Amino acid sequence: RGKNKSTYWLFFELLWRDFFRLMGKKHKNKIFLKSGTRDFMPEDWKNDMQLFKVWSEGTTGVPFIDANMRELNLTGFMSNRGRQNVASFLINDLKVNWQMGAEYFESMLIDYDVSSNWGNWNNIAGIGSDPREMLDFNILQQAKRFDPRGEYVKRWIPELSELPPKLIHIPDQLHFAEQEQHHVQIGNDYPKAIIATDKWGERR
Length: 204
Known about the structure:
By secondary structure, this protein is mainly α. The protein is built from 9 helices and no strands. The model has no long low-confidence stretch (mean pLDDT 92).
């Protein structure tokens, strides 16, 4: 029916799928190794089960991350944008071994594909075929760009449903009076942030 923005992105993502399949055939089992296809491995990646558990359960206290993980846990699906953000958070902010995230996705995704899953995690971790180093996402900036009114977050985290758009992505920065006003108690109704949201360059 004609070329448009949507058909461009469909074509673009199909190219990525074919590329990751090619990389899987070329590098074989190396895509599963901690050092990836580049034989590169930062020293600070750790197999921290406690941090992994908080991430996988969607209880990090960072709404955009938690909403995506809760959607995955309940439906077996997550958007491509969400997958990149939660992967970046696990690797760059929590410093957890990327393999743990890739394995969790493998066990949960209803659209799981070996090459696409592990190839994407390779790239986010900076040990794949992408010439750039680790893809370190600004989670707060991403949240405000792709969920500006917080509708996605509120769908999967109903305990934050009364927060206005300007506060929905930064509940850890709420004053006590604001928590009372919006009927949410941070640390009780919703977890305290494991990574303070002002890390990403925005304070109230």
